[in-house]
Amino acid sequence: MKLPEKFIAEADSFFSRHKEVPSEGFYESFDKVPLHGVRLSRAKTCVSEHEELLKVIDPSFERLDPVEWCDGGYYLSEDPEDTRKTGRNPLYHAGVFYPQEPSAMLPAQVLSAKPGEVILDLCAAPGGKACRIGEDLKGEGLLVANEINYERSKALLRNIERSGITNSVILNENPDNIAGRLPGFFDKILIDAPCSGEGMFRRDRSACASYEKYGPDTIVPVQKSILNAADTCLRDGGEIVYSTCTFCEEEDELMISSFLESHPSYHIIPHPEIKGITHNADGTMRIWPHLNRGDGHFCVHLRKGEECGREKVLSGFVRSSKPLKASERRGFDLARDFLSEILTDEGFAKLTKVPFTNHAGGVFLIDFDENLFKGLKVCKTGLYIGDSRLTSSGKSVFAPSNSIALALTREMVKPDRYLALGFNDPRLERYLKGETIQVTEEDGITGNGTVVIGAGNAPLGFGKVGGTQIKNMYPKAWRLI
Ligand code: SAM
Predict the structure, then answer these.
(1) Mutation pick for ligand 1 pocket among 39, 121, 148, 151 (CB with most ligand atoms within 8 Å)
(2) Of 410, 438, 453, which residue is a domain's last?
(3) Is the same domain home to 152 and 269?
(4) What does the pLDDT look like over 444-470, one tens digit per residue?
(5) Which of 354, 379, 410 marks a domain boundary?
(6) 183 and 293 both lie in a single domain
(7) Domain range spanning residue 325?
(8) pTM for the full model?
(9) DSSP 6-71
(10) From 123, 245, 248, 299, active-site residue
(11) How far does residue 231's CA lie from ligand 1's centre (Å)?
């Protein structure tokens, strides 16, 4: 492929100054077919199931081929025609896997979120890394996923919902506004920065045109400003992971050395050798497309000062308990009735360990004080359970949100309220298309009422059984066309 001249000059200069990095095969790597990868959700699957699931995801599957630097990450077969179909796969809609370029799996693994931590993903859309962070939190702590671009924040919201993450807030903000509202608040921050995208040239041909137009000179000041906002948001002892998909030193190593110079309390956390990753002497990491099997990527892990405990962060979470209005109590009762109709006692207790909250006219499960985010553009907060509506006859009914189904596991649902559709069952595609489907005796569903429909063991959405028919409750906006 024809690469931008400025990029070639920059790369030639890099390799002449860094003899330790072999240059042979670098330019040729841009003509190779890019590899595809998927990350299987460890919240929704066990490792022992991965081989069987990958056979469903990848029609040309031959053997398990794990991405060395990501738990749950796998390379797909090299047939791009097949792998492009992943967006129609029911397991994708159930949030069982997320298609992700293998190198892009590194930053969230390096961030290594732990249950209970309060984490900010500042440049989060479409959300591959945010979903991984949410998965690592295991429902404890908080993920704040921010995307400055409104259109892109919609994709982020959809992906977070699909992943079943319950303890998240999605913002559509400028990083400076978050810094103004939540200084010193976060334990860890991921900056997967907007960049000149040199590592994307072989995957996305339009990246070359965009590079010619904007290039590193435009983006470097933006990256500096995002790093400064992250510094304000981070508590002392907290960690930042900064990553880009470019080879440009000004956006990578030089960006970090200049940040460290102006912020002397920070230091780089070195990482042990990982196969496939090039570890630089300063502790930063790169993935090179001619040395490894992913696209170009840069990643560094920073700590602000020394680890010093996190009481200050947690104190921001205290919720004030207000007396409930009658209408709110009615909404909560309807939500409780709906959930207890479909969930086992253990499933109900697991989902509702977080309190019900009335928020924006609906019932939510929220484990933190929403006022923390007052003044910021909030797209979503906590888990939306649904809302109560009045029928034409004046009766209150509960309209559940599909996000609940995606936050469940099959074990949380009563066995006779779960319809598991096999991957070869034509009803699966028909359900995802929004059609009415039939239920038979062999399905094990007893009586009428709401059921959870699943792609195998993975819940997708709801349906309402009436006799032998199931009315489709899969959201219109999410249906396959
Ligand atoms: N982390 C994402 C993922 O895993 O799916 C990919 C993020 S992408 C590399 C960079 C994101 O930064 C884009 O979504 C872009 O809209 C956003 N962005 C652009 N300018 C920004 C700015 N000034 N501040 C914060 N984010 C910005």
Answers:
(1) 148
(2) 410
(3) yes
(4) 999 999 999 999 999 999 999 999 999
(5) 410
(6) yes
(7) 318-410
(8) 0.95
(9) HHHHHHHHHHHH-TTS--TTTGGGGGSPPP-EEEE-TTT--GGGHHHHHHHH-TT--S--B-TTST
(10) 245
(11) 17
